[in-house]
Amino acid sequence: MSRKTQALAALCAGLMIAATGCGGSGDSGGDDNTIIWWHNSNNDPGKGYYEQVAKDFEKANPGVDVKVQAFAHEDMLTKLDAAFQSGDPEQVPDVYMERGGGELADHVEAGLTKDLSEDAAEEIEMIGGSVAGWQVEGKTYALPFSIGVVGFWYNKDLFAKAGITAAPETMEDFYAAVDKLKAANIQPVSVGAKDGWPAAHYYYWTAVRECSQDVLTDAVKSLDFSDPCFEKAGEDVADIVAKKPFNNGFLSTGAQEGPTSASGLLATGKVAMELAGHWEPGVMQGITEDKKGLGDKTGWFAFPQIEGGQGDPAAQMGGGDAWAVSEGAPDASVDFVKHLLSTEVQTGFAENGMGLPTNPDATGALTDPALADLIKVRDSAPYVQLYFDTAFGQSVGGAMNDAIVNVFAGKGNAADIVTATQAAADKEK
Amino acid sequence: MTHDVTEPAPAAPGHATSGARRTEPVRRASGGPRGTGHRGDAWRKRLEILIFVTPALALIALFVAWPIVTAVRFSVYDWKGFGDLTDFVGLENYAEVLGDEVFRSAVGHNMVIVVGSILLQLPLGVAIALLLNRKMKGQGLLRTIIFVPYVLAEVIAAVVWLQLLQPQYGFIDAVTAQIGLTPPEQGWLGTPEYALWIVLLVLTWKYLGLAVLLFLAGMQGVSEELYEAAQLDGASWWQTQWRITVPLLGPTMRTWAFLSMIGSIQCFDMIWVLTQGGPADATATMATYLIDEGTKRHNYGIAGAASVILFVIAFAMALAYQVFVLRRDTKEDTV
Asked: B296 and A409 in contact by Cβ < 8 A?
């Protein structure tokens, strides 16, 4: 009996040594030449395009094996969280998507993400200022491959029907347009407040208009929201809500799913405009039966200027996705990420309408006219403020979004937004 | 918990009370040909118990006990979901959850659903069960119709109601508008003052079938002789139901109320699909609070503390109900 136990113990010990021996080389998800890549383009043409990109990379780098896994967006986020939580490097993909901001900072703090500052210095230089959202303490941890901006998408026909000749530029113009639309018996604006963030984007935007870039940059670092511009931004939102521009039942309207969602109402001509990101034409195409969305009727204008605001009038608010390499991934992963940012891959990315490329040489390849216009706006902006809920992290962002929805529901005021955000932020310090 | 599992295992009757009595029936049963047999038999019995109980215990340990222990562990740390548990904060998370107005209102909403479900479904369920218990044409069909909502998956039922309740374009708003009433501006689910009550109505629609089914089953257990005796005494139909059926349905009602209560405390799916706890947290329950804080905001410590509080509340209510309400039934049975 005891001899048997001893033998078993010896066997276990041997196995453990062997196991740690393997693990010691620090690879994840297979051997040194296998790159596991997770992305969220799970529909064609994006899915097929990325498969081709992986194959081309394998051909150019003999011996390297790229394993591509495409997920629906929400599934990918859930799986990524689970993989990181498991603490098991085998579960974590080598190349994955980072949305930047506080979420990335958490990953960096937990030692999950590789510092790319030196290995990808050229690409970082090429992308320019937009990379700031993916930097933590001066180091760059991911390379943004698509950055979009949030603005008002509108139905040109409905605007014309209401007698609106020019897209609104100031808040007064905006309110005038709302009144004209109402007079023409058209619901002016849809917002998916049920999902929280579509309503919260109004506050992010008023804050970008009210606060100077320095104040916003400081706030992301210090998590201090005492500057009066944050409360002023909340008052602006309360003013907009008080004008009642929104669709009936906006508090129980979802963002993007189905014809009664905020995007659906715009796509089917039930409302005249909606505040949304660069994804909106694609979402609307998915909702309408003819897969055309609003088609030629699609128009876009930037969030109206607010008089007396400290923000740069050309500043934009938006966000994007970046490729990151997990700590302990094979070295070839970094090369692969650099390849994904190359002019060649980004051009194909743009041609397939998969997003707004960050490689300046690829921006001309956008075929969708709405996106081609949008990228001009983005590239002429002095800076693109990252969505607050991403920039400040999920915990602070979640508290902020809830407080903003409360203002939409008439259950709170501008000061409550700042108080709730600061309270959540203080817990992070 | 372990009690429930081990209880059915000993086969011989009258055994569980004392150690001295326990060996007796065993010896009697085995007191046959083999002189030293009872020792081996006792061992065999224990082995048998072990073999039968182990799988269940292992599953409970893995899927009940371990998650509870893990939740308790998370609840005393400040943890974002990644890396090691290093930031020990003691009971701070608990203080924060209990001090959070959203959580307190969530507990309140849970209680509204607990009490509201019972107050709505009990009288309705009994009334419908009494009707369906009468012999009439189409009885089977009617029973099926009442029971269909319960068979539907909760999420599917919720999606159907979500479509019906769409503001402005939904069926219900269209009907209200047709009969000349103005539906609320924000829609039924978008108005904070109505949302919880609408959810409660949908829950009632969904779970009424279970109440009716259980009550009908309970009514089958009422002896036919009692009805005959009542008839001979000249009791009317109403009197028969009120004096015989309903009182004898007591144990069934109490068991049903227990199930309903547990379900209401854990209420999640329906609310998540209909309102996601909104608008402005007007329909948040403890379960939606957990998802919000944990999965969405990555405050796993807070979510852990909230889940422990949810567990304690559910456990205390279940225990109190067992002791003060269900005990009557078990006593009646044994006497």
From this structure: no
Size of interface A-B (CB pairs under 8 A): 98
Give CA–CA dist B290/A400, Å, rounded. 18
A184: left (phi over 0), alpha (psi -120 to 50) or beta: alpha
User: Do the beta carbons of residue A340 and residue A323 sit within 8 Å?
Assistant: yes
Q: Which residues pair with A316 in a beta bridge?
A: A384
Helical residues (DSSP H) of A226-368, grouped into ranges: 228-242, 262-267, 280-287, 332-340, 343-351
Q: Do B83 and A111 touch (CB under 8 A)?
A: yes
The β-bridge partners of A152 are A275, A301
Task: Choose, out of B96, B164, B298, B302, the residue to mutate when testing the contact with A (most A CBs < 10 Å).
Answer: B298
A67 Cβ neighbours under 8 A, 6+ residues apart = A29, A30, A34, A35, A36, A37
pTM of the model: 0.82
Tell me which chain B residues have a C-beta less than 8 angstroms from the C-beta of A412.
280
CB of A249 within 8 A of CB of B183? Answer: no
Write down all domains in chain A, each with its CATH number in brackets: 25-147+320-372 (3.40.190.10), 151-317+386-428 (3.40.190.10)
Coil, helix or strand at residue B105: helix
Chain B residues with a Cβ under 8 Å from any Cβ in chain A? 80-84, 96, 102, 165-170, 185-187, 189-192, 195, 275-276, 278-281, 292, 295-299
For residue B277, the chain A residues in CB contact (below 8 A) are none
**How many CB atoms lie under 10 A from the CB of residue A117?**
13
Q: Distance from first CA to last CA of chain A, Å, rounded?
A: 57
A194:B297 CB<8 A = no
From the list B80, B96, B169, which residue is nearest A260 (CB)?
Answer: B169
Which domains, ranges and CATH numbers included, belong to chain B?
2-75 (no CATH), 92-334 (1.10.3720.10)
Residue with tokens 């021996």: A21
Q: How far is B260 from chain A (nearest CA, A)?
A: 27
Residues 5-64 of chain A with CB under 8 A from chain B are: none
Contact B292 A398 (CB under 8 A): yes
Give the CA-trace dihedral at B214, B219, B220, B225, to 10 degrees.
170
Spell out which residues of chain A touch residue B166, defining contact as CB-CB under 8 Å.
249, 260
Reading the block at residue A247, the tokens are 């669709």
In chain B, what is the straight-line distance between the N-terminal and C-terminal CA atoms, in Å? 25
pLDDT by residue for chain B (335 residues), tens only, comes to 334 433 444 444 444 444 444 444 444 444 444 545 567 788 999 999 999 999 999 999 999 999 999 999 999 998 888 777 888 888 999 999 999 999 999 999 999 999 999 999 999 999 999 888 888 888 888 888 888 999 999 999 999 999 999 888 889 988 888 888 888 888 889 899 999 999 999 999 999 999 999 999 998 888 888 888 988 888 888 888 888 888 899 889 999 999 999 999 989 999 999 999 878 899 999 999 999 998 888 889 999 999 999 999 999 999 999 888 887 776 655 44
Task: Supply A311's token pair.
Answer: 């923000």
Pairwise CB contact (< 8 Å): A249 & B192: no
Are A262 and A245 in contact by the 8 Å Cβ rule? The answer is no
Contacts of B185 in chain A (CB under 8 A): 248-249
H runs (alpha helix) in chain B: 2-6, 19-30, 37-60, 66-75, 92-99, 101-133, 139-151, 154-164, 171-178, 192-220, 224-232, 237-240, 246-248, 250-265, 269-274, 286-291, 300-321, 327-334
**Minimal CA separation from B258 to chain A, in Å:** 32
ipTM of this predicted complex? 0.77
- Cα separation, B281 vs A196, in Å, equals 11
- In this complex, the residue of A85, A111, A395 whose CB is nearest that of residue B297 is A395
